[in-house]
Automatic annotation (TrEMBL):
Transmembrane segments: none annotated. The lineage of its organism: Bacteria, Pseudomonadati, Pseudomonadota, Alphaproteobacteria, Hyphomicrobiales. It comes from Hoeflea algicola. InterPro entries: HTH_LacI, Lambda_DNA-bd_dom_sf, Peripla_BP/Lac1_sug-bd_dom, Peripla_BP_I. This is LacI family DNA-binding transcriptional regulator. PROSITE patterns: HTH_LACI_2. Pfam families: Peripla_BP_1 (PF00532).
């Protein structure tokens, strides 16, 4: 008898605990609010105005949802509006001028469109990118802009399944519209500029070396194609060993050139300002031959004009890229086109 009583007591306590910790449902809220479950659902998902549900009922349901812990505060506050007005951006890096400029101008342009910008940096990690996209969607972002994402199609597929718009920036995808620089044309023009200066300053006509980036990356591949096309047009053959696309880091760029000590004229196409740091380090440590080197860089930094041997840089038109992307925000287009934005060639 004693053990039976103890067992009943434990079961009663467990039942009481289960009741106290049971998650509140829409049906619970409907009972408390004196409304139908479908009306509560419409209020919580922000479509209540379309169903002509009254403001007072909507406010009562939202208040009850907060009191019952149905949603975290930030989500509940978003439900008070029919739209969240949040636009999210995923960026790979903050530590160079290009992505820093994108992040800064993104905030400005979003506010000009009466949208609230949220930015997260993912360090070129595809899993971090996807987790960031899921978090942005969970906070009811109306659009997710993936900038330089390594797997943009995975993000786009998730966003579509969640009813959220997605746009690619800088690197293209095949499952959503993409706004990117015209990498091929800009690289071809920069290659011509470097070759012209090599011929003018050094009496030398190539071939140039290509330093930095990853061949699996769309932008690197497009720039390499433009680099090779410009030299083919001049009858210049580029050896495979001259393609040094071992990554974007400064260390890898410097390492790729470690065994190269020019004993005559030479020229380099540098594939990013991150790689440029390594090239400048290599160039500054040359025991001799530094005056024989001419190079140009795809990407822009105003300090680049002061670097010895640098003859020009490509500036990607961030302002036009973002303005173009924001013409797509909020539209119902199913387009998956790639929109190419011309770059600006800066000659020194």
């Amino acid at each position: 008898m004693h053990f039976q009583s103890a067992g009943k007591l434990r079961r009663a306590e467990k039942g009481k605990m289960d009741k106290n910790t049971k998650r509140t449902t829409i049906y619970d809220l409907a009972t408390l609010a004196g409304a139908s479950p479908s009306a509560v659902s419409s209020i919580l998902n922000g479509t209540w105005k379309k169903r002509r549900i009254g403001q007072k009922l909507a406010e009562r349901v939202i208040r009850l949802a907060e009191e019952q812990g149905y949603a975290v505060n930030v989500q509940a506050s978003l439900l008070r509006r029919e739209r969240s007005n949040i636009v999210g951006m995923i960026v790979p890096k903050y530590d160079n001028r290009y992505f820093g400029k994108i992040a800064e101008q993104f905030e400005q342009v979003a506010r000009e469109h009466d949208l609230f910008p949220v930015i997260t940096c993912t360090q070129r990690d595809p899993e971090l990118e996807f987790e960031a996209a899921k978090e942005l969607v969970s906070y009811q972002a109306e659009c997710v802009i993936s900038t330089g994402a390594t797997d943009p199609d995975r993000i786009s597929a998730f966003c579509r399944a969640s009813g959220v718009q997605s746009i690619n920036l800088d690197l293209p995808g095949s499952d959503a519209p993409s706004v990117i620089s015209d990498n091929y044309t800009a690289a071809r023009d920069l290659t011509d500029l470097i070759l012209d200066r090599c011929e003018k300053d050094l009496g030398w006509n190539g071939p140039l070396k290509f330093v930095g980036g990853r061949l699996t990356d769309h932008n690197t591949a497009a720039r390499l194609e433009g680099f090779l096309a410009a030299q083919r047009a001049r009858g210049i053959s580029v050896p495979d060993t001259y393609i040094m696309a071992s990554g974007y880091s400064a260390e890898k760029a410097a390492g790729a050139l470690a065994d190269f000590a020019p004993d005559g004229p030479s020229g380099l196409f540098v594939n990013s300002t991150i790689s440029l740091e390594g090239v400048v380090r290599w160039h500054s440590e040359l025991a001799s031959g530094a005056d024989w080197v001419r190079y140009g860089c795809f990407d822009w930094d105003p300090f680049g004009s002061f670097l010895p041997g640098n003859v020009g840089m490509v500036e990607q038109d961030v302002t036009t890229m973002l303005n173009t992307a924001f013409t797509l925000v909020g539209t119902q287009t199913e387009s998956k086109e790639r929109i190419l934005i011309p770059c600006i060639l800066r000659a020194f």
